[in-house]
Amino acid sequence: MARSLAVHGGTAVRTRSWPLWPRPAAGAAAAVQDVLSSGRWSISGPYRGTESRERRFARAFAAYHGVDHCVPAASGTASLMLALEACGIGAGDEVVVPALSWVASGSTVLGVNAVPVFCEVDARTLCLDPAAVEAAITERTKAIVVVHLYSAVADMDALTALAERHGLPLIEDCAQAHGAEYRGTKVGALATAGTFSMQHSKVLTSGEGGAVVTRDADFARRVEHLRADGRVLAGRAPAPGEMELVETGELMGNNRCLSEFQAALLVEQLKELDEQNETRRRNAALLDRLLTETGCTPQETSGGTTSRTYYTYAARLPEGEFTHVGVGTVTRALTAELGFPVLPCYAPISRNRLYDPRSRRRYALGVEHEERTDPKRFELPVSEAAARRTVTLHHSALLGDESDIHDIAEAFRKAVRHGAELTD
Ligand SMILES: *Cc1c(COP(=O)(O)O)cnc(C)c1O
Question: Which of 78, 193, 243, 357 could be stapled to 363 by a disulfide with Cβ–Cβ 3.0 to 4.6 Å?
């Protein structure tokens, strides 16, 4: 019994606990405490004589990316919608997005009344396939959103060249890639704009949160208006007790502001990001080696990548193994061995049960729009095949030491040994 799979009542590979996530930075508690008694909990509250935490985070995050502008926002979803609207995207425009991603890649495009065009990914990197993007472009295409998925950076040489050739803005969705680099430049700083999520699971987090970074001052100004009900922060500090947000009326917006608590937390968490990314990279390199020995194929990254960020560790199951069962059966077995969730890769958004434009009356914009946003019109064999064979682990599994990585590899070896015993 001891040798059989934990899902079949055997002894699990591991019962010890895993690293806790989120992990509060050294200065986090004091920074949040400071905000509590500061008299300003949001940039939309009166100025109190000191720079807001939101501005401090914006400065630090822009500098981190080597760009001049960062506009913090309430979430990754908000950041994507802000960036799309700042590109001028709206009613009926087509936006090319990868099929393999979190549902937000589709729902944010719908959210600005545009039409998501789901596009195939490269089977090795799981990121947008430039050739497929080229084929998806029509005269109605108005932007491309690329996602740096899991631990990969997309092929930015090809995608930036393609976007330029077609005169299209390119938005980098960096919700899973804080700190990754391509040819020595941070992702998010490679194209028109970069968007980030600081939701609980991400490698930089304040529970919820987001940001848009860009080199373009006019673009940043539009994002600022859009995220604060048409107001922008004054260029110079007002008198204490007065509003720092100025009502310009240049561009209407909605409130998508980050609170001072979140911004204060992010200033501190950002200080520890590089070190945590380094730990994850080191552990991922060991896991790559050990899982390759079991026949698995770890996710690859594009050729120009100079530094990876592991938000999720992804690997394709060994050729010829587990062929009689679904990937969910394999991930359940691995989860039982590790006491840590091993999950299947995202399904293509076109068949994600969370993606259903017709469930919302706000998208009932006429028969043509409903047809164009019908997810059933997409055929995505490469993304489907990747989804059927790829398993993933959250980055917190990579935040400990080598013994954790050996446990993960042992769970995979054991699952392969007992693969024939699994049934759906
Ligand atoms: C998390 C995530 C988002 C959405 O971010 P939220 O902060 O949850 O709104 C968007 N895109 C990708 C790729 C993500 O992983």
Answer: 357
Q: How many CB atoms lie within 10 A of CB 48?
A: 13
Establish how many alpha carbons lie within 13 A of residue 111's alpha carbon, considering only the half-sphere containing its beta carbon: 17
pTM for the whole thing? 0.98
For residue 197, the ligand 1 atom closest to its alpha carbon is 7
Mean local confidence (pLDDT), 335-339: 98
Query: If you take atom 5 of ligand 1, which residue's CA is the nearest one?
Result: 76
Please answer whether residues 50 and 34 qualify as being in contact, where contact means their C-beta atoms are separated by less than 8 angstroms. Answer: no
Give the chain's domains with CATH numbers.
6-15+273-347+383-421 (3.90.1150.10), 28-271 (3.40.640.10)
Residue 385: what residue type?
A
List pocket residues of ligand 1, CB cut-off 6 Å: 75-77, 101-102, 104-105, 147, 173, 175-176, 197, 199, 210
With a CB cutoff of 8 Å and minimum separation 6, the contacts of 28 are: 265, 268, 269
Ligand 1 centroid vs 238 CA: distance in angstroms? Answer: 35
pLDDT digits (tens, 9 = 90+) for 277-289: 999 999 999 999 9
Give the model confidence (pLDDT) of 279-316 as tens digits.
Answer: 999 999 999 999 999 999 999 999 999 999 999 999 99
Q: How far apart are the first and last CA of the chain?
A: 21
